[in-house]
Specification:
By secondary structure, this protein is an alpha/beta fold. Helices cover about 35% and strands about 20% of the residues. The protein is built from 14 helices and 15 strands. The chain has an 8-stranded parallel β-sheet. Strands 1, 2, 3, 4, 5, 14 and 15 form a 7-stranded mixed β-sheet that branches. Helix 8 runs parallel beside helix 9. The radius of gyration is 21 Å and the shape is globular. The two termini are about 20 Å apart. Bound molecules: 3-[(4S)-2,5-dioxoimidazolidin-4-yl]propanoic acid (DI6) and fe (iii) ion. The site of 3-[(4S)-2,5-dioxoimidazolidin-4-yl]propanoic acid has 15 residues, from helix 3.
């Protein structure tokens, strides 16, 4: 090990939630040492080597945890859909609006019309809002362009956000979000365009870290998704799936069949779908903001997920249509309130399991060798993180990229 006097920073007098092990992995009187942007040591302060003469900072009994991870967002987009929110309050359904040419398509028009600079300027405050509540890693999906150029534009804006901020941005190609107007009635041809032209370009340029699709009656069928996922696998790109959000389309099982990192939404997933996910190791990403905004009543099969040992993550789904929510803390509270996840499940779901949903094994817990992406909180217990909304408990964020 690196000698202690050479540490970059040693944090002492902390209550630590490592998120590895039971009961938040708590270390009551803890200390943590950082070297080269990584955790070099974490444990009980009494065991801290004597020669810890590096820059040492007392956290005064505050809680130290992994920085939060938002593993499912669509936060790069043009315009907004407050008008449709109003229509839905008056009784129109999400599917009705989509079939009438609104919904995702209305954001597609606004996103196509926006320049990369305009999209960047609109998205930056959203990244900053998440960062301001302790988020250190954000996944951002494309899917509001639906042409080769505009999907590439979205991915490059997302990459740019990662370069300009200390937050890690993971990008996901969601070109199969809905059938673009140019391909109405020819969804198979659109899938071919993605498979033959867009995916190879994205893979060659390393523009996306994963591929996602929307498997739903108003979007793509299981066989269309299967074609896309086979091609993604050939190109070495991991996959994720918007599955069973509005109906049971067998999405959970489909994701499992392709060893997806995650299947997301899952309100209508069957017990068989959950079992398939458990066998494949796919993470269930729950999106309580979309559930709330759409006024859904069908709960995801949480008990089956727990029984079968499917890891559960929680994310914002930040998007202008179904989840105009740019707060992971709010999503954690909603997951507790609506889905009855325990506060510990909510917290693990926004750290350790969220990392797993992104295929990242270097963050989400506090352990030797992990990235030093940390959050410091003025709370008396970590259960408060899935309880308060909009209150200022975050004391400090320390991200490896700022060290
Ligand atoms: N499910 C969602 O919740 C978002 N996309 C998806 O496939 C909604 C996207 C939108 O309505 O703009
Ligand atoms: Fe989504």
């Amino acid at each position: 090990m690196v000698p202690f006097f050479a540490m970059d920073l040693v944090l002492t007098d902390a209550r630590i939630a490592t998120l590895s092990g039971d009961d938040y992995g708590v270390i009551a009187d803890g200390a943590l040492a950082i070297k080269d942007g990584k955790i070099a040591w974490v444990g009980a302060q009494a065991d801290l080597p004597d020669e810890a003469a590096s820059t040492t900072r007392s956290l005064g009994g505050r809680w130290l945890t992994p920085a939060l991870i938002d593993c499912h967002t669509h936060l790069v987009f043009g315009g907004n859909r407050a008008d449709e929110f109003e229509q839905r309050l008056r009784g129109a359904s999400y599917e009705d609006i989509a079939r009438a040419g609104g919904g995702i398509m209305s954001t597609v028009s606004a996103t196509r019309a926006a320049s990369a600079d305009e999209l960047y300027a609109a998205a930056l405050p959203r990244v900053e809002a998440l960062a301001a509540e302790g988020v250190g890693t954000i996944e951002i999906k494309s899917g509001y362009g639906l042409t080769i150029d505009s999907e590439l534009k979205m991915l490059s804006v997302a990459r740019q956000l990662g370069e300009a901020t200390p937050v890690t941005i993971r990008t996901t190609l969601l070109a199969a979000h809905t059938v673009p107007p140019e391909y109405q009635g020819r969804a198979d041809d659109y899938i071919d365009l993605i498979c033959d032209e867009l995916l190879p370009e994205v893979a060659a340029g390393r523009l996306a870290d994963a591929v996602d699709a929307y498997c739903e009656s108003i979007a793509f069928s299981a066989s269309q998704v299967a074609k896309l996922f086979s091609r993604s696998a050939e190109l070495g790109l991991p996959v994720k799936l918007h599955a069973d959000q509005l109906s049971d389309g067998g999405g959970g099982a489909l994701a499992a069949q392709f060893s997806a990192l995650s299947a997301d939404h899952l309100e209508y997933t069957s017990t068989a779908g959950v079992a398939a996910m458990a066998a494949s190791g796919a993470v269930a990403v729950l999106l309580p903001g979309a559930f709330l905004t759409l006024g859904e009543t069908q709960l995801p099969p949480i008990e089956a997920m727990r029984d079968q040992g499917v890891p559960i993550a929680v994310a914002t789904d930040c998007n202008p249509g179904t989840s105009p929510i740019c707060s992971l803390r709010t999503a954690m509270m909603l997951a507790a309130r609506q889905f009855k996840l325990t506060p510990e499940e909510c917290f693990a779901g926004a750290t350790r399991v969220a990392a797993q949903a992104l295929g990242l094994d270097d963050r989400g817990t506090l352990a030797t060798g992990q990235r030093a992406d940390l959050a410091v909180w003025d709370i008396s217990h970590p259960r408060e993180l899935a309880y308060w909304v909009g209150t200022p408990q975050l004391s400090e964020v320390i991200l490896a990229d700022t060290l």
